Structures are given as C-alpha cells and as structure tokens.
Amino acid sequence: MEQSMSDAKLMPVVILDWRPMKRNSLLGFAKIQLGALKISDVTVNTNSGRLWAGLPSKPMIDRDGAAMRNDQGKIKYVPILEWDSKGTGDRFSESVVTALEAAHPGATTE
Fold first, then answer.
1. In whole angstroms, what is the distance from residue 64 CA to residue 83 CA?
2. What is the full per-residue pLDDT of the chain (110 aa) written as tens digits?
3. Which H helix or E strand runs over 51?
4. What confidence score (pLDDT) does residue 110 get?
5. What is the DSSP string of 75-100?
6. Closest Cα to residue 33, out of 54, 17, 19, 44?
C-alpha cells in the first residue's frame, strides 16, 4: 500500500489459505483469521501500484435470479460485511496485505 502504518496499528491477521486468481485487478482470495473470527474469500487486489484487501461480497441478483450487471457488463456486488469507518477498513486491508506478503512472498506482485 502507498502509505505504511506502524506495526502497532496492524490487526492480528493470520493467512489460513491463499488461492491465486489473477483477473483484472484481482490477485486472489485469502482465508484469514482475525482474532476468533475466520473470514473466507477476502479479495486481494492491485491497480496502479496500489494493493488492497476487501471483505467478501456477493453478486446482486434480480427478480429472475440472474446476476445484475452494470453498463460495462460487469457483475454488480453488494457487501456482506462492512467496517464502521474507512480508517478501520484501511487498517484491515494493510494488515491482510502485510500478512499475505509474509506468508506467501511474491503473492502480491502483478
């Protein structure tokens, strides 16, 4: 990530599994442990030298059960979980990226 936080601010993230899947900005999916909580399908993305991790989401579904798409034809997603603030989300993201780089060197390179 562009700005590094001090280690004291990082969340205690453990990478339990890593599934590389390079597609557009997506690098892959991580299963993580954050304290007593395990979270599957955390996305790790990169674009223009910036790295970030995101909480899992699910496709938006229309009345007929088909995935909804935007004007460019890409599937629309809705969050399953959300952080209470952008700062907390940024801390989570940097914590996941840092833990992933330590557990799987080279996983965050394009």
1. 31
2. 444 444 558 899 999 999 999 998 999 999 999 999 999 999 999 999 999 999 999 999 999 999 999 999 999 999 999 999 999 999 999 999 999 999 999 999 86
3. strand 50-54
4. 66
5. BPEEESS--SSHHHHHHHHHHHHHHH
6. 17
Q: Tokens for 108, please give them.
A: 């965050």
Residue with tokens 């460019």: 72
pTM: 0.84
Query: Can you tell me the distance from the alpha carbon of 100 to that of 43, in angstroms, rounded to the nearest whole number?
Result: 11
CATH (residue range 7-103): 3.30.1120.40
Query: Which residues face 75 on adjacent strands?
Result: 69
The answer to whether 55 and 64 have CB atoms below 8 angstroms apart is no
Give the C-alpha separation, 107 to 110, whole Å: 8
Q: Which two tokens stand for residue 20?
A: 């590389």
